[in-house]
Amino acid sequence: MAVDIARNARAKGNHPFGCILVDDENEHAVIKGGNTAVTTGDATCHAEMMNVVRMACHHYTEDFRRNCTLYSSAEPCVMCAGAIYWSGIPRVVYALSEYELKKFAGGATFDLPCRVVFERGTLEVQVEGPFKVTGMREVHEGFWRQEEGHFNGPPPANREERPRKETMPDRFTKAVNKMRLECGFDEVDSGDEGGY
After folding, report:
1. Higher per-residue confidence, 145 vs 82
2. Catalytic: 128?
3. Inter-residue contact 6 to 73 (CB < 8 Å)
4. Residue 38, CA distances (Å) to 9, 17, 34, 192 in order
5. Confidence label for 102 from pLDDT (cuts 50, 70 and 90)
6. Beta bridge partners of 31
7. Which of 38-42, 56-60, 109-113 is the least confident region?
8. What is the Cα–Cα distance from 52 to 48, expressed in whole angstroms?
9. Are 92 and 57 in contact (CB under 8 A)?
């Protein structure tokens, strides 16, 4: 099921990852989520951290979460492993390993097993995986661009490029230039050596 969610995330133009949080006591899925990093423009919107763990923390108590298992289409990255750890979810089961993912995504992964992250903490998180699940590799094939400096999949057709937001240094440079022009001096470039 997590791979189906990953497939759906990819179809929407996002990275192909999905996960499910299952209540172990009643054996049913309580939260499902896919990656939304591309369509939201937020690189932290991974399936595990932002779209399942965060929702679980908002909707369920820590006692409830301690009786859940997170099933993921791929091994959680360092960021997501940290979120899982701090949420109190005690068990993670995944299909595609971080090592296997690196074969598809190249530099877009840490190549650091989540077990290593969890072992550094004092809370116990049981990890099971990788498991062979139908479609776990296929959902990544042809998605990741391998050119230098490009670690994301193709941009979705339904999202326009967002204009660059003006930063504080940009505003400062404009203010300084306005004062310099009013005083009869030349404008300065924010990139000038010794500039602002």
Report:
1. 82
2. no
3. yes
4. 10, 12, 11, 34
5. confident
6. 21
7. 109-113
8. 5
9. no
Task: Quote the pTM value.
Answer: 0.74
Total residues belonging to the chain? 196
Token pair for 161? 């490029």
Angstrom distance (rounded) from CA 69 to CA 67: 7
Choice between 52 and 177, residue whose per-residue pLDDT is larger = 52
28 token code pair? 């049913």
For the chain, give the mean pLDDT: 83
**By three-state DSSP, how is residue 163 classified?**
coil
Structure tokens at 171: 């505003």
How big is the CA angle at 106 (ends 146 and 127), to the nearest 5 degrees?
A: 150
Among candidate residues 27, 48, 119, 124, the one labeled active-site is: 48
How far is the C-alpha of 91 from the C-alpha of 186, rounded, in Å?
A: 63
Pick from 90, 88, 98, 160: which is nearest to 129 by CA?
98
